[in-house]
Amino acid sequence: MKTNLILATTIATLASTTAVFAHATFANQPAKVGSYVAATLQVPHGCDGKATNEVQVKLPEGFISAKPMPKAGWDVEVINGDYQNSYDNHGKAVTTGPVEIRFKNGDLPDNFYDTFVVYGKVAAGDPATGLAFPTVQLCGADAKVAWDQIAAPGQDPHDLDGPAPVLKLVAAEGDGHGHGAHSAHDVHGGHGAPAEQAAADGHGAHGAHGDHAGHGDHMAATDPGGFETVTAGDLELTAGFTRAMLPGQPVGGGFITIVNKGSADDKLVSATSAQAGEVQLHEMAMEGEVMKMRQLNDGIAIPAGQTVELKPGGLHLMFYKVSEPFQEGATVNVTLTFEKAGAVDVVLPVGPARGK
Description:
Blueprint: E1 2-5, E2 25-26, E3 31-32, E4 36-43, E5 54-58, E6 63-68, E7 75-89, E8 92-104, E9 114-122, E10 131-132, E11 135-139, E12 143-147, E13 166-167, E14 169-170, H1 183-186, E15 187-188, H2 202-208, E16 230-232, E17 235-243, E18 252-260, E19 266-272, E20 278-287, E21 290-295, E22 300-302, E23 307-310, E24 315-320, E25 331-338, E26 342-351
Parallel strand pairs: 3-14, 17-26
Antiparallel strand pairs: 1-7, 2-4, 4-9, 5-8, 5-11, 6-9, 7-8, 7-15, 10-13, 11-12, 16-17, 17-18, 18-23, 18-24, 19-22, 19-25, 20-21, 20-24, 25-26
């Protein structure tokens, strides 16, 4: 398996498993086979009073091209592997992809509830059983809760001590068999096997494909133009933009080019926006086969006489806790604070959700 690591840290060895009562479940309404869905996992408690620090979610066969939604305060690790079957995704055969998502280094106290979102395509699945996502909560170095038991055919999942969360399914329109819809269309070489939810039908879901808030989607962002150049001291800011967001999507990315025409170095130290609860400075970079995405708490250096691009796939802004999704054609007001140039107000045009 290959691992895409976001702020990787050592996983502590676990020594015990603690029984609890409320189960981890999905908040979603039933998803149509063949559609894209933001699978929203609900974690209602910790490990017998201990806070949850890590949530490991194994992705079932048939759930392909998965992308986790970035979560403020948590690091994310994406583990890739081979699928048992080959699936058709927009005319392309897909045989490998994410098989496990790990939300790490967070802090969810036992008396609080939270959700963890993974977006992907339900390429195959049986509406009679749904898709089970074996999940493990880690709490410190010596406690865990495992929701990894999958019910046998005809067995009531409530009879299990630790039933895996199940994403309920409905057959795609026109599928009279009630099993893996599109199984003949989407699977080759084998027998097939709330507000945050993307459109559950095969048509609306195509429009949503690749448009969730994951960092990797920024690779497709398109500059719509219309940004008015701003000058602050020796700095010149150009080519600023963000992009449209899906309904219920609380995270977005922002981009801008900064030219330092002076003889002294400067630094972008922070960003704020009235349209987001929090704005962070981020970096996404490939190191061999490992993709690392991290928050830049020390800021972004703007060397004298150089140009620094906050662009898709590299340095960028991350807008968290966005109450109203950014709409194409609108604007987002942002205040950038530099070490020497001070606070600078910019207006980012909102481009299309998908790259064109």
